[in-house]
Amino acid sequence: MTLVVTAILHESAHAKINLHLHVTGRRPDGYHLLDSLAVFAGAADHLAVHPAEGIPGSVMLEITGPFGAGLVAESDSNLILRAARLLRATADADVPARLPPLRIVLDKRLPVASGIGGGSADAAAALRLLLRAWPEVRVSRARLMELAAELGADVPVCVDQVAARMGGVGEVLEAAPDLPACGMMLVNCGEAVPTPAVFRSRAPVFHPAAALPAGWADVGAMVRDLSALTNDLEDAACAICPTIRTVLQVLAAAPGCRLARMSGSGATCFALFDSAQAARDARVAVERPGWWVWAGGLRGEECGAQTGGTVGRAV
Ligand SMILES: C[C@](O)(CO)[C@H](O)COP(=O)(O)OP(=O)(O)OC[C@H]1O[C@@H](n2ccc(N)nc2=O)[C@H](O)[C@@H]1O
Ligand SMILES: Nc1ncnc2c1ncn2[C@@H]1O[C@H](COP(=O)(O)OP(=O)(O)OP(=O)(O)O)[C@@H](O)[C@H]1O
To answer: The whole model's pTM is what?
Structure first.
């Protein structure tokens, strides 16, 4: 029996973008029912699992990268360590003592608390990585999705990182319409907007789920349909962080922009373009001091580029 992982394993944790987000209802426990078309951008955090020394089944987290500093103080509650604890707890009682100790390095490249699900993507990537590093821990696909939902409403869609229609509170996933290749720009003004505050302060109005076709042949057709939809959290987020309105205006005025909208609970906004190159060309018109700007394509298409401490904690 060996307790050593020899290979370094890698995963990318891509930004989730809500192309529309309708709040369709509210559950008795306060969580909101949603209808959203979620897609994944080329922009991503990166996770690597290294062999470590220590207690069997332990996981140490190191955080690096341009947005790492903001997470260091709350490392113990990092979604990556929460994912590790949850996965370990689902294993049979004798399994954790046989698991190799691990060190996960998070290269935090996505802004935190910004509506693009970076923490959720990290948690899902950690689940994928740990299932590879700890083959002794066996979970069914159904159980994996339950664990993901326990970690957060956005985590289930991040498990596969493919475009999906989100329903329920985020855990009901259905196939997305066939999407055309398109360009995307992401802009975050640097102000964290906490998701609970946005849901709390929104007007108590509900919208029906959107009617979407089976697919869109081109960006024009997709934008025509998306323009009739909304992000129902946008007004509440703008009230908390008025700079979001400025970001939306700047994006809408960028050359080649076909649609500008906020993602998730904000503050990150996205713009759609005809191609990744068109998005990159428009970038110079959007950049402002202190703003994080990313331009490129959807995950799996061309990747983009972005502008914009290390600590150890174990579980
Ligand atoms: C807004 C979205 O980003 C859309 O994709 C997600 O619904 C948010 O997902 P998330 O950040 O993973 O959310 P969670 O960490 O599960 O929840 C944070 C808080 O947001 C509120 N929340 C979240 C999801 C949801 N469907 N209804 C809610 O009311 C709740 O107050 C909850 O306590
Ligand atoms: N690895 C992580 N990356 C980012 N945030 C994390 C992480 N682990 C824990 N968190 C906590 O989760 C909170 C939400 O982070 P995240 O970046 O996922 O927000 P978000 O982009 O608004 O997500 P969503 O779009 O799902 O609402 C942060 O304020 C932070 O306290």
So the answer is: 0.94
